[in-house]
Design goal:
alpha+beta; 4-stranded antiparallel sheet; 6 helices; about 15% strand; globular
Length: about 170
Amino acid sequence: MSGKTDETGRLNCVFIGWLLDEFLGQGRAKVILPITDQYTRLHGGLGCCAGVHLPEDILNDEARCKELEWILASMPGVETVLPKRKACQMYDLPEDRTADFVVLAAQNTVLGDTPLRHDLGSLDWPLRSHGGHGASLVPMISNRKRNIPQSIRNNYDAFELGLNQLAL
């Protein structure tokens, strides 16, 4: 988890719902931020990963999808925009539960839908969040030296690591 404010303490947030409403029409796309949990005073429901679900007519228009992907990727603070299939391949995600686009924020930025859909008044500053590439390396400490297999690379490998590698 890392800070998502600039040097003056101002929030670095990209509200992608605004862009989608402008590009596609009000309420035609849905932004899902998987960080929605009980710790909204910490992150306000803003995260470094967002899923964008599109209506069928847009999904069936390859040119509009490419244009939307380019527009999202061009926004300051957006690090990566991946179509569903590529995101599923890269991050071992299930296709039936993954958005049409996966958007990842840059290290010091968070993503949101629109300001009206986030309770920013209850935040404990400075805002911190996670979910992007900047939070992908998580240190682990062991009381003994171990050679960890290269195959351990995902969060669900933590059980393998904890039970079969470090506990021995």
